[in-house]
């Protein structure tokens, strides 16, 4: 099947380079559904200052990260958000073509206000290493050079790479090895960001 070939190729790239970037990732329908959902959560004031560290060790440190997040909950948000079907499919494709045993995922909406950033880091926490693959879908219409907020990645033994947060661009990368940072942002920046997990985690404990 053609769809499988595309995913096989993407997963090969992920295995070889530790990351893969995909353009026009979501269908127009799923993308616009997601953007409506995001707007609604903004209006409802549901995005909260993000924390750092493993559950129980959550601290708000503005000098490290400045984004606001809303954790998605399948049980609660499924009726409103078509994205879950896509996430289920990706989990399946990673399992099939990367020979991983992902059992779950956790995702949040992320809003970086003007002037914010996220310093260089790895996505696996100390004492909690069940995040296998990081995934980000950007939602910035009309992003232009100078807007900032690029994702800078540091592949081991290779040149650093700067990825612009263009609308409907998606990146997958290995959570355990790929260092990355979000460069300072000159206007607000939106994404949906999450992790494919080896074992399920309790979402409740992640909320500060
Ligand atoms: C993160 C992160 C990168 C981005 O949330 O851990 O590194 O481009 N995000 O939003
Ligand atoms: Ni990160």
Task: Explain how this protein is built.
Helices cover about 25% and strands about 25% of the residues. The chain is built from four helices and eleven strands. The strands form two sheets. A seven-stranded antiparallel beta sheet has the order 1-9-6-11-4-3-2, with helices on one face. β7 and β8 form a beta hairpin. Nickel (II) ion binds near residues 121 and 123.
What's the short version?
This protein has 208 residues and is of the alpha+beta class. The chain is built from 4 helices and 11 strands.
SS-derived structural category: alpha+beta
Report the helical percentage: 25-40%
Report the major sheet: 7 strands, antiparallel
Unreliable stretches, pLDDT < 50, 5 or more residues?
204-208
Q: Quickly count the helices.
A: 4
From the spread of the alpha carbons, the general shape counts as globular
What is the arithmetic mean of pLDDT? 90
Say what oligomer this is: single chain
Task: Tell me the fraction of residues in β-strands, as a range.
Answer: 25-35%
Query: What is the string of SSEs from the N terminus onward?
Result: HEHEEHHEEEEEEEE
Using DSSP, what is the number of strands? Answer: 11
Distance between the termini: 44 Å
Radius of gyration: 16 Å
Strand order of the largest sheet: 1-9-6-11-4-3-2
Distinct ligands, ions and cofactors found in the model: N-oxalylglycine, nickel (II) ion
């Amino acid at each position: 099947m053609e769809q499988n070939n595309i995913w096989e190729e993407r997963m090969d790239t992920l295995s070889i380079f530790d990351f893969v970037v995909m353009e026009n990732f979501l269908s127009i329908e799923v993308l616009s559904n997601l953007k409506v959902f995001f707007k609604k959560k903004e209006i409802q004031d549901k995005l909260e200052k993000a924390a750092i560290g493993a559950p129980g060790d959550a601290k708000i440190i503005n000098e490290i990260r400045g984004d606001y997040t809303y954790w998605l909950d399948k049980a609660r948000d499924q009726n409103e958000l078509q994205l879950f079907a896509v996430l289920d499919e990706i989990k399946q494709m990673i399992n099939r073509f990367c020979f991983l045993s992902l059992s779950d995922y956790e995702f949040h909406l992320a809003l970086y206000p003007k002037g914010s950033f996220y310093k260089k880091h790895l996505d696996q926490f100390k004492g909690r290493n069940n995040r296998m693959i990081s995934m980000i879908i950007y939602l910035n219409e009309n992003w232009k050079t100078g807007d900032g907020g690029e994702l800078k990645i540091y592949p081991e033994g290779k040149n650093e790479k700067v990825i612009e947060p263009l609308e409907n661009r998606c990146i997958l990368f290995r959570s355990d090895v790929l260092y990355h940072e979000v460069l300072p942002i000159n206007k607000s920046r939106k994404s949906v960001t999450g992790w494919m997990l080896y074992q399920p985690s309790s979402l409740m404990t992640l909320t500060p």
